[in-house]
Write a structure and sequence with these properties.
By secondary structure, this protein is mainly α. The chain contains ten helices and three strands, in the order H-H-H-H-H-H-H-H-E-E-E-H-H. A three-stranded antiparallel sheet has the order 2-1-3, with helices on both faces. A hairpin with a 4-residue loop joins strand 1 (173-179) and strand 2 (184-190). It is globular. The termini are far apart. The structure holds manganese (II) ion (MN). Manganese (II) ion (MN) is lined by residues 67, 71, 122, 207, 209, 211-212.
Length: 246
């Protein structure tokens, strides 16, 4: 807030009556601009469904804070920048934007793949995790448990195959669990490429970018993945599975 002393005010007044006459109009114009900016802001960073420290010790408060407030925020900011002026695209849910990537103008398509993917992937990631004992950890139940057994023989074998997909991803990327045509499938994609780009619906995702684990597990992706199972929210994954099946 701009505060002026009496002396400064007199000085401003002396600068001319025009300035004063314009001031209310200028304030109105600024408010209108702010309103416009808020309406056209597009995508926003979702709040975490738990406290930053909730996943500790699997994932520390420091990592969650950086990952959510810096990395995820940057994807949101850059997605909005890339889509500046494209009001129709800014209004779409990010998942639909990625499913319909062909409709995005070619000159900004890669930026949307990277930053829209980053936004969608992280939005899912926060939801498929929970504090141990507060929905985090344990094993899947019901239809999802059956589908995992059908596709991978057992929960343990599934975990091994999923961890392998995360370990073998060279550089940055994600391991994903997606319902395939007949059964559940594990895939791994580079960078922020979302399964939605290929018409697949992710129900579980594991971020294996170094920013996801380097503070807590320096140079040890395997240790990160091993501890990550303690915070997987299987009821959220089961909901996604049942919606994806339709
Ligand atoms: Mn990440």
């Amino acid at each position: 807030m701009l505060r002026l002393s009496r002396r400064q005010l007199l000085k401003v007044a002396g600068a001319g009556a025009a300035t004063l006459a314009l001031a209310p109009l200028a304030r109105f114009a600024v408010r209108a601009e702010e309103k416009k900016a808020a309406a056209a802001a597009g995508f926003t960073l979702p709040t975490l469904p738990y406290d930053y420290g909730a996943l500790d010790p699997s994932i520390s408060r420091k990592t969650m804070d950086l990952h959510h407030n810096k990395h995820h925020q940057a994807y949101v900011t850059n997605l909005n920048k890339a889509l500046e002026g494209q009001d129709d695209l800014l209004k779409m849910p990010v998942d639909d934007l990625l499913r319909n990537i062909d409709k995005v103008p070619e000159r900004i398509r890669q930026a949307v793949i990277n930053n829209g993917g980053g936004h969608a992937n992280h939005s899912l990631f926060w939801q498929v995790m929970a504090a141990p004992g507060k929905k985090g950890g344990g094993e899947p139940k019901g239809d999802l448990a059956k589908a995992i057994d059908t596709a991978f023989d057992s929960f343990d074998k599934f975990k091994q195959a999923f961890a392998d997909a995360g370990m073998k991803r060279f550089g940055s990327g994600w391991a994903w669990l997606v319902p395939g045509k007949e059964k559940l499938e594990i895939i791994s994609l580079p960078n922020q490429d979302s399964p939605l780009l290929k018409g697949q619906t992710p129900i579980l995702g594991l971020d294996v970018w170094e920013h996801a684990y380097y503070v807590d597990y320096p140079a040890d992706r395997a240790a990160y993945i091993a501890k990550w199972w303690n915070v997987v929210n299987w009821s959220n994954v089961a909901e996604r599975y049942s919606k994806a099946k339709g």
